[in-house]
Amino acid sequence: MEHLALERPEPALAVVRLIGAGRVNLMSYAMLEELWRTAHVLQADRELRVVVVTGSAAAFSAGMNLRQAEVSSFEQFGVEQRLQIHAVGARACKAWEDLDAVTIAAVEGHCIGGGIAFAAALDFRVASSAATFSAPELRHGMNMSWQSLPRLVALVGPARARRLIMLAETIGAQEALEWGLIDRQCGPGEALEAARVLADSLMTMPQAPLRMTKHAVNQSAGPLNHAVSYMDLEQYVLSQSTDAHRASIDAFLRRG
Description:
This protein is α/β, with parallel strands linked by helices. The chain has helices spanning 29-43, 69-72, 79-97, 114-120, 149-156, 158-166, 173-179, 191-203, 207-221, 225-229, 232-240, 243-254, and strands spanning 4-10, 13-18, 50-54, 59-61, 102-107, 110-112, 124-128, 132-134, 171-172, 184-186. The chain has a single domain (4-192, 222-254), classed as 2-enoyl-CoA Hydratase, Chain A, domain 1 (Alpha-Beta Complex). It has twelve helices and ten strands.
């Protein structure tokens, strides 16, 4: 794998590190493909019980790399091609959400856009006090996709989801904890260690009821998630055709 690193500190525990572009650990479509494939590998591992996902010291991930041709030069792809390309985000998130193993995001620094969408698909989120969270898609003329909107609403409620997504507010770790976006806060540089402590607690629980409870909670929190968000892929491709999206991407690219 080029965009992920997988470690197995012990048979029941896996640690996956996102290896993205630049200082803020930007995601790519290749990374999303690896996340999707890795989820299937992990699901087949009968010994695995907990998976911790982390990023770099500076960022869990600041979202998708807008310089990728699939984003910056999207006009070169037809509508059917774009639907195929962009579908991988939702597939990757769903594959991780459906894992039998309990999943924990260990967040340092920025957790933005695609980063927050992926983190919301995991079961727990542990964050450094220096972490920041935001969903700036609307500022770039895009909708919040990857079927992440109902997950965020389930975590923070509709009023705060409006602030996070419709107003593109940036919140710190303490506010994220108060909102319910994260489950635990720790000192800077300690997110992975804190996630490992949480993982140890989870691994003391009987495996079968833990797995059943995880899936029951997910189903209780989002029984209509797919019904209300299955179309966000088509909405994203439609949003790409707007002047606001093209202007925002061009302004980003001009920043060098």
